[in-house]
Design brief:
Length: 660
């Protein structure tokens, strides 16, 4: 057995494996254990680097005895040869007797005995926690904290005086890991003993190994996956999972009250990733923050404040693409956390929309675009880098789709900081290039274009998209073609989600491009060229969506649903894409007589009419929210985007009804 196993912490209770990002532990280096004492043969040992910056403890070495000493029957360190007369101890020598006599003294045999016993199927520590054992562990923690604080105060310039107490402190902190096996029992006792306040003090400890140990313990104690895990024994228990949830919430509230959450975020600026232990500590810190947000999304509000360094740290960390591969875990996790906090619902988390706008005003849009530009010519390597790319795209989409505050003065509309920065930093041009390149980033570029062109604030971006020759590539994806007209074969697969985003882009173009402007004329020309082939495809998509909805909604169950439930069921099966397709169809009919006649002919072939299109548009209008109006808005105030969309739908429906 490897001697490194002596110094590893005892096995911890395993949590349910879910989708949460897991830390990939680095290979263990024996050199990192030279500073660890062997005063006791059991108990959790500190991790590597616990004495960094302090005086090193005496190392443990295993020395080979000389041939003369072996022949004399005594080890170099005074231990007996073949201790306790254990003849079977040397049963593995070969037939020539070359290995007769192990040369091990008493101390060395004790070490091997520990290693051989470590694999026995014994009861894990903490499997049978009691209130007495929990209180004892908490008392040990307080004693270790007080002793270490006292020694550091008395001998601030002599680390040798307090290094042993630091090891004991780390052991006492890690003993709390086991409390996660019985939260309903242990967590209330932690609150009773003011453990959250103790953790708050330890997060400011001079030795970074101590805050990192606290973070790792809190990460385990507050793992939301434990709430989803129900053991067979717990299924019959009375509210076992609910008791877990209650205990975890109470502990979380205690940690918030003690100021632990703010201190955890502050740790991000203390971490030196050049140190492997601190680099791993950063990963666990991000994991703990993810746990906190998962348990209580409202806790993200302080992180999103302009006073918090959290968002700026994440942007800086996710953009560091030139570091060695061992740093990639933290870069990928930073992107995931950035996308997560920006996607939180504004109804639950205060400051989310303001934080999204900061991405534009702080110059972070340019940083995100530079990261994404890497994938214009190449695909990400491996699933983790692919997820990293998707997270950066998702963060950008969340920011581009964030609403601006309602306004009443049409001459002074608010500026959408993200879309303004996206336009200035040539984000549209980059996405068009990604569409042409047809790499893995193509589908994400389509989605991002959809979010960028939406709403009043997307009008300038719509014009820039046409000017950047984006229509050619967009319609190639719409038709499922290659850009090369001589090879009208399928390019990358266009999914239902891609089709919905393409229809949304076309909808935004028809809504925002000024009437009779050159960009709008170019858009209409695309539907007219080549014998209306784009209209053929549009009506083909419409038919596919109708069939999908009719197959996806059970007519028997539909009769038992109320109106809202039925509408949501239809949305799940593609109704929104159908609404967008009919919105585009109505605009094409209104703008060009030849296109209108072609639509009528195609509908009649399918036993449909414009009344079917009108019915979809009316249902669409009935379910659009009008949006928030400013408190000082008068009768002549600027209509909200929802009100404006409903008015457009009403005009389109009236026009189509006049033709039916």
């Amino acid at each position: 057995m490897d001697i490194d196993d002596i110094f590893k912490r005892p096995p911890l209770p395993k949590s349910t494996v879910g989708t949460k990002r897991k830390h990939e532990a680095p290979s263990l280096d024996p050199e990192s254990y030279k500073s660890v004492r062997l005063d006791t043969p059991s108990g959790p040992a500190p991790t590597a680097g616990a004495d960094k910056g302090n005086a090193k403890a005496k190392g443990v070495t295993v020395q080979d005895g000389s041939d003369d000493e072996d022949e004399g029957g005594a080890g170099a360190q005074g231990g007996e040869f073949a201790p306790n007369g254990d003849a079977d101890y040397f049963a593995e020598e070969d037939e020539d007797g070359r290995f007769f006599g192990g040369g091990l003294n008493t101390v060395q045999k004790e070490v091997l005995s520990i290693m051989e016993g470590s694999g026995n199927d014994e009861q894990l520590p903490g499997e049978d926690l009691t209130p007495q054992s929990v209180r004892k562990q908490l008392l040990n923690l307080e004693k270790a904290v007080n002793k270490n604080r006292d020694l550091r105060t008395r001998f601030p310039s002599d680390p040798e005086k307090f290094v042993d107490s630091e090891f004991n402190l780390l052991e006492a902190i890690r003993a709390v890991f086991l409390f996660s096996t019985a939260p309903a029992l242990a967590y209330p006792l932690m609150l009773e003993n003011s453990t959250p306040n103790t953790f708050a003090d330890l997060l400011s400890h001079e030795n970074m190994d101590v805050p990192i140990a606290v973070v790792e313990v809190l990460e385990e104690l507050l793992d939301p996956e434990d709430l989803e895990e129900v053991d067979e024994d717990e299924e019959d228990a009375d509210g076992a999972v609910e008791k877990k949830r209650t205990a975890m919430k109470a502990l979380l509230d205690g940690l918030v009250e003690a100021g632990v959450i703010d201190l955890v975020v502050a740790q991000l600026q203390r971490v030196n990733e050049e140190d492997e232990g601190e680099r791993n500590g950063l990963f666990h810190t991000l994991s703990l923050i993810e746990n906190l947000v998962s348990l209580s999304p409202a806790l993200a509000s302080p992180f999103l404040s302009p006073k918090s360094p959290f968002l700026s740290f994440l942007v800086d960390r996710l953009s560091q693409t030139s570091k060695p591969v061992e740093y990639d875990q933290n870069r990928f996790y930073a992107a995931e956390m950035f996308a997560l906090v920006l996607s939180l619902p504004a109804e639950v988390v205060q400051g989310v929309n303001e934080a999204r706008q900061r991405v534009g005003s702080e110059g972070w849009v340019e940083i995100l675009l530079k990261v994404l530009s890497t994938y214009r010519k190449r695909d990400p390597v491996g699933s983790e880098e692919e997820e990293y790319m998707e997270n950066v795209f998702d963060a950008l989409c969340s920011c581009l789709s964030s609403p601006t505050p309602p306004f009443s003065n049409p001459s002074n509309p608010p500026v959408h900081a993200v879309k303004a920065a996206f336009l200035a930093d040539e984000g549209i041009e980059l996405l068009v290039l990604m569409l042409k390149a047809k790499n893995m980033s193509r589908n994400r570029a389509i989605k991002t274009l959809d979010h960028a062109l939406q709403g009043r604030q997307g009008a300038l971006l719509c014009e820039r998209f046409v000017e950047a020759l984006g229509l050619k590539t967009l319609f190639a994806a719409f038709m499922g073609w290659s850009d090369d007209k001589k090879k009208k074969k399928a390019a990358l697969a266009t999914t239902h989600e891609d089709t919905e985003h393409i229809l949304a882009i076309l909808s935004s173009l028809f809504t925002s491009l000024p009437s009779d402007s050159p960009p709008r004329m170019r858009l209409l020309a695309k539907f007219v060229e080549n014998d209306y082939e784009k209209i053929d495809r549009l009506l083909e998509i419409r038919e596919e969506l109708e069939n999908r909805i009719s197959k996806g909604v059970d007519p028997v169950l539909a009769q038992e649903m109320d109106e809202d439930e039925l509408y949501l069921e239809k949305l799940d099966n593609g109704l929104f894409a159908l609404q967008l397709a009919d919105y585009v169809t109505a605009w094409v009919c209104m703008e060009d007589d030849g296109a209108r006649d072609h639509v009528l002919m195609l509908l009649s072939r399918r036993d449909k009419s414009l009344r079917d299109v009108v019915a979809v548009l009316n249902e669409y209008a009935d379910n659009i929210g009008e949006g928030d109006r400013p408190e000082d808005a008068g009768e002549d105030a600027v209509p909200t985007e929802g009100e404006e969309r409903k008015a457009i739908l009403a005009e389109l429906a009236r026009y189509l009804e006049s033709l039916a």
